[in-house]
Design goal:
Layout lengths: L10 E2 L8 E3 L16 H12 L2 E4 L2 E4 L4 E3 L4 H13 L6 E10 L9 E10 L3 E10 L2 E12 L23 H5 L16 E5 L16 E8 L7 H15 L2 H7 L8 E12 L9 E11 L2 E10 L4 E13 L10
Antiparallel strand pairs: 1-12, 2-5, 3-4, 4-7, 6-9, 6-12, 7-8, 8-9, 10-11, 11-13, 12-15, 13-14, 14-15
Helix pairs in contact: 2-4
Length: 332
């Protein structure tokens, strides 16, 4: 199979075929390679900026990408922005409990994205919204999201995995990838608003350096402070949920992203929010892949707060295609 052509896939993944870094705001007068990479609170503030959609008129919003971004829009960004748009049309006492999304075309980071919200239903306890993300007059993504007023009821959960070292004992992603500067690609230039710490080897190392593992576990947190807004935390969690999940498919086989490994795109994404969570505090993303066939891989993930609460469950299917060893589109 040949290396995947990016315009064939719906939504490029972080770290797989996102294209070169581009400057999305030419008015700054500097190129993407000349701008300092944003980290920590500066990167988080940039994330908040892209989540703060501009309202064009009733139920229509416009979003932009980070000032330095991959050419192709990261799927988690579109999903997070779509949830912002949906949430702004819902009563303040209702909170998102699930979303189901399809990525249908790649988005261009240098162009704004318009989000159109359809108010499907406002009932006594639930509100349902459908959001379509549009570029150049065509849908690139659509999502259904359901919001629920808080109720009391039965409460149980599976326990959090216990055999996981705490995040403070794990290297940062930058530290893990320091021996492989040639593998950084666009990742070395885009804002790093999420602190990601792999328990095992990430899919960004060279092929052959990653042992096969049926589970992929990652600690994450927004690398700064978010406002005390439950919708913002849900949107940030949605953004982060697309960063590493599909990598669980490759982990099962000891495979990697990039030249000599695989390129991938997200096809669909579902997320259930079980309990309130702060995305700027550590949470464990416990992922596995129950099946892969026909060029597609399915991955599931459970998110646990540091104190052991099961806060969210994620399921995603993605397209995975081998890349040639000489591929120039580096991991990002």
């Amino acid at each position: 199979m040949t290396e995947p052509a990016i315009d064939e896939g719906p939504a490029p993944r972080a770290g797989a075929g996102l294209g070169p870094a581009v400057e999305t705001d030419p008015g700054t007068g500097t190129g993407a390679d000349e701008q300092p990479r944003l980290v920590g609170q500066e990167a988080v503030d940039d994330l908040l900026r892209i989540l703060d959609l501009e309202q064009l008129e009733l139920d229509i919003f416009r979003g932009v990408s980070p000032r330095v971004a991959p050419m192709w829009v990261f799927g988690g960004q579109v999903a997070g922005q779509a949830l912002v748009a949906a949430g702004r049309t819902v009563a303040a006492d209702r909170f998102v409990h699930s979303l189901h999304a399809y990525f249908v075309r790649p988005g261009n980071s240098t162009k704004p994205i318009v989000y159109s919200v359809e108010r499907i239903r406002d009932g006594a306890s639930f509100s349902v919204r459908r959001v379509t993300a549009i570029q150049h007059g065509k849908p690139i993504f659509f999502m259904s999201a359901s919001f629920h007023a808080t109720e009391e009821g039965l409460d149980h959960q599976e326990p959090m995995p216990q055999d996981v070292p705490p995040p403070e004992q794990l290297p940062t992603l930058a530290e893990r990838l320091a021996p492989y500067p040639e593998r950084l690609g666009v990742w070395a230039r885009v804002p790093q608003s999420i602190d990601v710490r792999y328990v095992g080897e990430p899919g960004f190392v060279p092929r052959g350096d990653r042992p096969a593992s049926p589970r992929q576990r990652v600690w994450m947190r927004v690398d700064g402070t978010l406002p005390d807004d439950r919708l913002v935390h849900a949107c940030a969690l949605t953004y982060a949920s697309d960063l590493t999940l599909l990598d669980a498919v490759l982990s099962t086989h000891g495979e990697v992203w990039g030249p000599g490994g695989f390129g991938g795109v997200s096809l669909d994404h579902a997320l259930w929010f079980h309990r309130p969570v702060r995305a700027d505090e550590w949470f464990l993303y416990d992922c596995l892949s129950p099946s892969a066939s026909g060029g597609r891989g399915l991955a599931t993930g459970r998110m646990f707060s540091a104190d052991g609460r099961h806060v969210a469950t994620v399921v995603q299917e993605g397209l995975l295609r081998p890349t040639s060893p000489s591929a120039t589109d580096q991991v990002g």
